[in-house]
Design brief:
single chain, alpha+beta, about 50% helix
Length: about 475
């Protein structure tokens, strides 16, 4: 697992909530740690002295208590003066501010008033900087003044860290996305965007990269389509020019009187008719291909028996097969081969395959048509005993206007669109068409079509129209 997958990816609002919580808690924690370990913290000895003196307010006049309290607090560097109703009761040292050599020393003085009657007030003198950790924390006022300074510094550092994180996870990826948009606008689609741990930013970057990849694929497809279009136009021009030139030559021969015998005239007319039929077939194929490819003609599927359709088509092609001396056979199961398809389009596709098989099968050969039902759909095959398909032609056999360089060439007629139209019709039905060679030679075309969504043999449930009591009464009357 990569590092990017291990890192958490959270929504932006959750990151903002974490940033807000971090802004509050981190300065507090840092300030507490610094105050405790560096500045010495609040003056706990003063608190201890205040509490101990407060517990003994009723014994302020007791010499034993006075001596014990003075001894305990002196160990912490604290002196005190007790005043009751404005009169001094006890002083732990004659002069709490007296220093060495008779000089006045600087001490922290805290006045504490205790509740009750009489009014009791204690003045507590402490040496500077004795904190709860026993370290020298400097003058008390300096320590308390340092608390907001440390808090402010901690807050600024925290905000700087949050700013760095948001800049890395939000601002930088968005800036990269903006730069990538300008890059795509300039025509450069090879963009790479940085990762982000913010879900919204990561989704935007992922969508942008996906869009860029789709644009690259679209441009490649457009380039391939343009290349195919140019080849298509060139092949169409070639296929139209060949019969037109031949037709023009024979018509000019008729015009100049070169048909000086009845046999020549008959041959000229027959060739002209053949070339006209070739042109008609070419234009028909081009029209069908254009409707399927560019107008996106969609089939109108309905349940139909493919076996019955094949039977009608085979009988229609049988005179052509008998004229050429080709044996045309059909093998179908006794039960119907139900498929979901458009009768007109499937008739066109199967007719193209049968015409192709008869055209390439020599006299004395065979064309075998078969159909069977499988769980995945209905499978049909059309096999001939012609020269077969060279292996190097198989990958491009269904490309528009593709022709191999062997016996399957333009001398046999057609525009090279029949197989393309047949396969695209089957693909439009959710099926497929493939080509290969039989073990004994000859070409084999195998097609697959899906079963209908509902078995046509099952009766449709009758529709019952509800009638109101009034309608029933009117009918009975």
């Amino acid at each position: 697992m990569s590092a990017s997958k291990r890192r958490p990816i959270l929504p932006l609002r959750r990151w903002l909530a974490l940033a807000l919580a971090t802004t509050f808690f981190v300065p507090v924690v840092i300030t507490g740690i610094v105050v405790y370990h560096v500045l010495g913290g609040p003056l706990e000895p003063l608190s201890t002295a205040t509490e101990q003196i407060g517990r003994g307010t009723t014994r302020w006049h007791d010499p034993a208590w006075q001596d014990a309290t003075r001894s305990d607090l002196a160990a912490m560097g604290i002196d005190f003066v007790l005043v009751e109703d404005g009169r001094e009761v006890y002083r732990s040292t004659p002069d709490p501010l007296a220093g060495d050599g008779g000089q006045v020393r600087e001490r922290w003085v805290e006045r504490v008033a205790y509740p009750g009657t009489p009014r009791r007030v204690a003045y507590i003198y402490s040496d500077s900087g004795v904190g709860w950790n026993g370290q020298d924390g400097g003058p008390p006022e300096a320590r308390f003044l340092a608390v907001p300074i440390v808090g402010l510094i901690s807050l600024l550092l925290t905000l700087a860290g949050i700013g760095w994180f948001l800049g890395r996870t939000v601002v930088r990826p968005l800036a990269a996305t903006s730069q990538a948009a300008r890059q795509v606008a300039a025509g450069d689609l090879d963009v790479r965007l940085p990762s982000s741990r913010v879900r919204e930013v990561a989704e935007v970057n992922a969508a942008f990269e996906s869009m860029s990849a789709e644009l690259r694929a679209s441009l490649r497809q457009q380039a391939e389509f343009e290349h195919e279009r140019r080849l298509f136009i060139g092949a169409v021009v070639h296929d139209l020019r060949t019969p037109l030139f031949a037709l023009r030559g024979y018509l000019e021969g008729l015009e100049k009187g070169l048909d000086d015998t009845p046999e020549k005239r008959a041959r000229y007319i027959a060739v002209a008719q053949e070339k006209a039929a070739t042109l008609e077939r070419l234009i028909g194929d081009l029209f069908d291909f254009t409707r399927l490819e560019y107008l996106e003609q969609t089939p109108n599927p309905e349940p139909l028996d493919l076996g019955a359709l094949l039977d009608r088509l085979v009988e229609g092609f049988r005179p052509q097969a008998d004229t050429k001396g080709v044996q045309l056979t059909l093998t179908i199961p006794p039960e119907p081969c139900w498929v979901q398809g458009d009768t007109h389009l499937l008739t066109r596709a199967l007719s193209n395959l049968l015409d192709n098989a008869l055209r390439y099968t020599p006299s004395g050969g065979q064309v075998r048509v078969a159909c069977r039902t499988e769980p995945s759909g209905v499978i049909f095959t059309i096999a001939d005993t012609g020269p077969g398909i060279p292996a190097h032609d198989l990958p491009n056999l269904f490309a528009p206007l593709y022709r191999g360089e062997t016996s399957r060439n333009r001398r046999t007629g057609g525009a090279g669109l029949g197989l393309t139209i047949a396969r695209r019709i089957l693909l439009a039905h959710g099926g497929d068409l493939s080509a290969g060679n039989g073990q004994a030679g000859g070409a084999v075309f195998t097609g697959r079509l899906p079963h209908p969504a509902r078995d046509p043999r099952q009766p449709t449930a009758p529709v019952t129209l509800a009638t109101s009591p009034g309608d029933s009464a009117a009918t009975d009357g």
